[in-house]
Predict the structure of YicC family protein.
Amino acid sequence: MKSMTGFGNFRTQNNEVSIEVSIRAVNGRFLETRFHLPRGYFPYEIELKKKFSSSVLRGTADVYVLRKTKSSVSSGRISVNLKLAHEYLKAFKKLSSELRLNENVRLEQISKQPEVIQFEESDAISANELSLLKKAFEGALKKFDAERVREGAALKKDLQKNLKDLQKHIGRVSKMRDEANKLLQERFESKVKSRLPKEVAGQQMDPQRISQEIVIQLEKADINEEITRLTEHIKNFDKLIEMPVVEGKKLDFYTQELLREVNTIGSKSQVAGITESVVEAKTLIERIREQVQNIE
């Protein structure tokens, strides 16, 4: 079992460059990845995304790559914007004339103006640097995955505890079923006898018909089917969380089914003890649902 949330960081370097990769992910219905890369690494984004999606199924993840060069002279070229330099020269001369200053325009003044002289770093990535990038990415991905497994183990432990507690409440409801049915039978008998006329067309009402009506009403109000389905859903849920690869979407489906059955029991219940257990069960299912939202 893996959590969708996690963090992984890895840094590596050689004599020329230092590369640090950080991966951070939160819950998400589907897999969404956002890569924040230096411009020179853009061509490798698709390859890195494929590598990421082969390890992660769901979640919203941000991948940050920080690149720092170590050499005193970076690879690149210096460009001079001569047209802009001429415009600055004209501007300085005009200003000197307008202010009636006998100042000569110096080269240093022109060269310091924005965008006159620019250094353009090379986008070319050496084979050694590409290897270093992949190493940093795989290292961060490994740590990120380990963190998700660790959080997943904690989630599994909590889920098992909540499932066990839920099973106890369902067991209590099951034990109170006979009491509930007996109470319902008494109420239905009283209600049916009070509403049905004792004579129909001069004949006495058939007691067997009364019994059949009571049985029909009891079958509608009986919670045996809901208890059976709840027990089965809990067993399936427990099997799923024990599997090598746990799918959060399947667990989410079973959580909805658990809540559906418990709600049905609550709507049929006319026994205080059953109602109390239903409230506790719904609280536990809500906790389970919140935990399931974190599972990949």
